[in-house]
UniProtKB/TrEMBL annotation, chain B:
This is Sugar ABC transporter permease. Belongs to the binding-protein-dependent transport system permease family. Its main location: membrane. Pfam families: BPD_transp_1.
Amino acid sequence: MADEFRVDRRGTKQSLRARNLALVLQSVAAGDGVVSRADIRRSTGLPSATVSEVVGDLVARKVVREVGQARSNGGKPATLLALDRDHHLFIGVHIGRSQIVASRVTLGGRIQESVRLGYNPTDNPIPPAAEAVARLSATASGTVSSIGLATPGIVTSEGVLTQALNYGWSMMPFGEQLSQACGGLPVHVINDSNAVALSEVVLSDRSRVSLVLLWLGTGIGAGIVLEDRLYEGHGHRAGEIGHVDTGTDALCVCGRTGCLEAVAGLFAIVGDADAATVDDFVRGRPNTHAARALAHRVQRAARELARLVSTLAATLDVADFIVGGPLVTHAIGPAVLAAINDELSARTVPGFSTVRVEFSEFGGYDVVIGAAAHAMCQELGVMVTLPDAVSDGSAPSSGRPNEEEEMALSQHFRQRATAVALAASLATAGCGAADGDSLVVEVWTHEFAPLQKALQEKWIPEYEKANPGTKIKLTSIPFAGVVSYDSKLLSALSSGKGPDVWDMGDWNYDSFHKGGYLEPIDPTVFGYASDKELIDSYQPGATKAVERDGKLVGLFSEFNTLNLFYNTDVFAQAGIPPLPADKPVSWEQLGEIGKKLRVENNGKVERTGFQFGFFANFRSPQWYAQNFYTLMRQYGQDDLYVDGKPAATTEPVVKAFKLIHDYTFEYKAYDPTFLNNWFADVPQGRAAMVQAGTWYPASAKESNPNFKFAVAPNPVVDPDDPSTYQNISWLWGWSVNAKSPTPQKAAAQKFLAFILGKKGETAQAAYWFEQAGFLQPSKAFLESDAYRDALKESPWLKLWIDAFNTYKIAPVQHSYDEPGAALVRAIDRVIYDKATPEAAAQSLQQELSRLDSQ
Amino acid sequence: MLRNRELRAALIFISPAILFFLVFWAAPVLLALYYSFTDWQVGQTETWAGLANYTKLLSDPQFHTAVLASMSIVLIVMAVSLVLALGVAIVLADPRIQAGRLWRVSVIVPVVTDWVATGLVFQLFFLPNQGVLASFGQSLGIDALNSVRWTTDAGLAPWAIAIFVIWKQTGLYAIFFLAGLKGIPGDIIEASKVDGANAWQTFWRIRWPMMTPLTVFVVVLSFVTTLGLFEPVYLLTGGGPAGATRTLPLFLFENFFTFGNSGYASAAGIYFLLLSLMFTFTASRILKDRDES
């Protein structure tokens, strides 16, 4: 900015103010949506007071708006600023050879409406242009701030067209005329190739763009952009290269010979060749005389254009040469481009990189966008990027010279348009999130390989693709790490931070609900009319653990109960017949079987018959509780508390302890100190049986692919007494952070609907089931073909349907809490300290009573 | 006396350290102190509870068990590792033994490894039937080692933890002692030899007394760090069996994070702090008195 060697005028208050305004606006545009006043102060070096004042001014003028608050890391959160891309409207007008195209464009570059009028090029184009503007102004919803007018020829900064050779115009005060015809609206006139060059800049997301745009049509022109600034030259003639002398003897319309246009203009190249000839040439079959002549003309044009390009490259040190104009979409275009690039490679100077020419990605010549961008640039003092440009490929946006080229163009254009539309929606999606900045949704999960894999490889990429503008940030935390997943969740949430959406075990729902961290699930996001309809879409009673006040505060990641898995190889080897799959065995019978399966050699235990979920290295309160509650309930007591009072010395509790005791010491079916890996002990034959859920095989097979297993119904106290068919259920649920910002909350619910499925969708549930063994107890899923297919493949899954119907299933009441910890100690006393069941029950009762008295 | 300018410079230079101390030490301690007088539960607003948490702790058998479990592990660790460390230091410092750099490095290696990584190794080390110790027993024909429940026997579990901690920390104390031994001026030793003192006498009458300040430091350090250890306990026994190794940090952790009893846990933390301060004070007094007599 400060590299001017001479200053021709002293800075005045007004000029400084304008300059500050431009500086600030430039910073806002550069950091659109993520920039705060403090950032601007840092990047511009302006005093805070000035920044505040200028920003205030811009906000008042609705050029800039406040879009929310940055996440604070202490202190007052900064207010983020973005360009107010929808308030100010601009009209871009392109005067073409036979028609005038005008569009109304937002500050974001979105084309709201376009008008196309024909006119006679020998007439003054201003009246039809004014009419186009009038039509667009009439339907505008906001204020039209100014007009950009793109015209062929040399244009002064006052908006006077000094000369347009091909049109025979000279000294036409277009700017003034149009302004008068439009009720005094400011009009900014720009040369058409400069306008295209400008459109290349505003559509580029790079900063400090330097490029030369070569307009190749009937005439040839260039638009030169140096470091984001259009270089117009001393007499506004920069880029008027159509009539430079190439030294050839071709006769030009201007009366001289050797002009570039006469050799490389589109008409000069194509000449009298008809479409068939061009086609022959393009397909590499220059058999006819006419095609050979065409080849010759292409060669000549390419040579002269390459000469020009290399001269410009050497003079300006610009690397980007872009070809726009009718040539881009002409059938001969690619051949000409290839020929130019061939010539350029031959001209490469050793030590310099080869210059290459490319077609404008944008389909060549969005003159109207360029004209509007020029108007914006003049009004605001800075060049802003236009992320919304071409939000819809069908909008008749471009000032294309004629209809037939439009056809060819549209295809190329649409491809690009999709890409741009994607970028545009990325910039604007996320209701209330900043333009140009994506919405980040933070997801936490407990560490479980199939879960991470499903999210990372499928759901997150797919969701981000379907919802450009939303980014999902996944963090996985070991469930039983040194600081466990639950602890991390709780401490993050209680300090007002934490994820926007996460999964957790059902034991957390009480305390998390009490803490106010759980946002109710919005049934409408999932396609249900009411909470009741959502709840009723699951198996009766399944939602119990996540239901609060008739609403769901969590949705199923998985819902499960226990059945008995056993290693069939081990059974066969020990000569034990397979267990019945349709009727549970009793604990007693199982103890006897477990006893037979135990292998001990010279005092070394090599195999144990049965594995409870908890053991020496895996002291999970969840598993202590799950195994214990199953037994206690089968003996006839639902919880350690009866009528709100501790009831740990009752017969069912003592019997449950006794069973664990007998499994450890009488049958020796279970050896808690011997086991060491939940998912490897049974597959590797160290243990023969384990109680687990549908998730077990996927993880067990991960490292032991040859694991052969069968499943039996969960053992009961008395297979002939239905009242002992009792089991636990647990679920892992997805929940949304009630304290997250509204856009995050909305996106989180949407994400859950995406990964879990809306009303009537079963594909998601099927995926989770197949990939991770996670069972969603949704009626639709359990009745779906996917589940039927899964049943066919893994018949053992039927046991879960049976279990949901034949067992009484309910979540455990205590695990990760103080009574849960007391229960862990009591079971430890039985299996490690060899306490009698009665003594363990007694000490548990004491601990519970003590907790109760506090 | 510092001149004004020097004082200012000094303040500027130590201000980051002071700031760090205030933010990461003083502020948390003061906050914990405040919360210890409240009934704060994680995620809820607290109300003043006076000394309720402190009196409740004094009558909480779980807390008593925690203090006892902590103290037993600390005592084993200190007794063994300090003696061992001094021995190692004497060996390393002896010019006749010519302990090379490799030896010194090998002493420090356990110190710089990660608690969690080594903890997992020790888990495997102690595992009955399949573990390292058990396999060692098998190769020697000692089958009884198979069924030794190192981490799940209420009597052995503190020892298992202590063995791990001793392995991990002795090197550090040894390095301190080594520095102390090397720091004793050679002429004093020489003078004692001239006076006819033997090696035993030189050690007990010259070296050891001269190292008193260092010893105080090492004793206090080992007490405070061992008392505060969380990872080895969590990894090896998880506080089990039946709470036999549920040390103070585990008690704190469980109450705070699992049960959400944050005010209660804060009060336990304050007791914890007082215990450390009392020990530090007493240890330095005892050793100083002995030094002066």
